[in-house]
Amino acid sequence: MAPSHLEKVLREHIADGQPRTHRPWKKIIVVVEGIYSIEGELCKLPEIVSICKKYKAYVYLDEAHNIGAVGKTGKGVCELLGVDTADVDIMMGTFTKSFGSCGGYIDGSKELIKY
């Protein structure tokens, strides 16, 4: 989804509210992949983060295909694109691809992890 389309969708959903009740949304989470596995295309993370801040939406970043493989030290798409990891609310990834192990991780605020 292009950042301009994301902004349009967020504006519409915020204005319209929930489908049946039209009540405001309590939380909106925008889920993106750092690298889209089929195309190998990088997400436009700086623009997405900026739009999410503007509309108070959360950013959920799937790092499964890029952690350990991109960025100067392999820290992923945030490092590669110069995005502060503090601006990404939820990050997840796997240890099975670049790290040759099993399992995965999810990263976020202490409050989120405890939830």
TrEMBL record:
UniProt key word Transferase: yes
Coiled-coil spans in chain: none
Top-level EC class as recorded in UniProt: transferase
Species of provenance: Lactuca sativa
Name of the protein: serine C-palmitoyltransferase
Coarse class of the protein's main subcellular location: endoplasmic reticulum
Enzyme Commission numbers on file: 2.3.1.50
Pathway: Sphingolipid metabolism; Lipid metabolism; sphingolipid metabolism
